[in-house]
Amino acid sequence: MDIPAAAQVLGTMGAVCWSIQLIPQIIVNYRRHHAIGLQPSMMMLWAWAGVPLGVYNIVEEFNIALRVQPQVLTVLSLITWIQCYHYQKRWHPIRSLLVISPMVCLMGGIEGALIVALRIAKARGFRWPLTVCAVFAAALLAAGVLRHYWDIYVHRHVRGISFLFVGLDAAGDLFSLVSLFFQTTIDLLGIVIYGTELALWLGIMACGVYYNLGPFLRRVLAKDGNRDGNTRVFVGNPEIEVDQSPELEQTQHEASSSTSVFRTPSSEVVVRASCTLNELATNNDFACPSNAIACPG
Q1: Less packed terminus of the chain by CB within 10 Å, N or C?
Q2: Which residues make Cβ contacts (< 8 Å) with residue 154, sequence separation at least 6?
Q3: Residues of 130-159 as b/e, b for ≥16 C-beta within 10 angstroms?
């Protein structure tokens, strides 16, 4: 479909999502002063992925939003990478700047040189260099996300990553993907790049639901069940028995200090203790409190 206005609007929406996607992650890292679980290798792979992706989008003369999008991705990824090393490796900010500054210059130089070179190649009818750039960008983006899949596999938990960041990134991929269908010509490689990234993020969301949300809901339900369930009895003498009504589940609880009985509206607990005269004679520390335990004579 040749609808440039729709392509521009959707591309802009995707660029906005990508422009702010890492901001929630950066804020979360700053507030908690650590980046445990967030993979610095992912951030560095993403930063470098912005170089070939930017070259491809610019040389192919996509809309302005899609041309700016990879540059924003690179900058935010580098900031997040610095945070990982600052909080986890205790790097001083000056050290981080000394490391990142030449890296930024190198990335900018490589991207500028490739843009000039590939424009010449495209004018002469050589399109395979652009194809290489697109495939390389997609590979780096996918590798960055797959690094988190390995961490999820090892820990059976989605660690360190902000799900708001995940949602914004997925939305940016979706808008950018749809915008390609409204360009003058449909670009298959662009579809592969954004489609692959979108599928991987949806997988991260699914893992979050299974490993994070599922156990959380089970804990909440278990907590509510304990509140509505049977009464707990904490006793110090192992000979004390707890009897409940036949329709209720029998439970026993042992603790180390005081003796107390609790009742709930849903159940009634009868506590019986066998106290003999011999026990009272031989063990002066043993006593049957009259207010909580009935000692049959």
Answers
A1: C
A2: none
A3: beebbebbbebbbebbebbeebbeeeeebb
| Residue 140, both tokens | 């780096």
Q: Per-residue pLDDT for the chain (297 aa), expressed as one digit of tens each?
A: 678 788 878 878 887 887 788 888 888 888 888 888 788 888 899 899 989 989 988 998 877 877 888 888 898 899 999 888 888 888 887 888 888 889 999 999 999 999 999 999 999 888 889 889 888 988 998 898 888 888 888 888 888 787 888 888 889 889 888 888 887 777 787 788 788 888 998 999 999 888 888 777 888 888 777 766 554 444 444 443 444 444 434 334 333 333 333 333 433 333 333 444 344 444 444 444 444 444 444
Beta-bridge partner residues of 242:
271
For residues 76 and 23, the answer to whether their CB atoms sit within 8 Å is: yes
**Residue linked to tokens 């991207």:** 111
Question: Considering all CA atoms of the chain, what is the largest pairwise distance in Å, rounded to the nearest integer?
Answer: 108
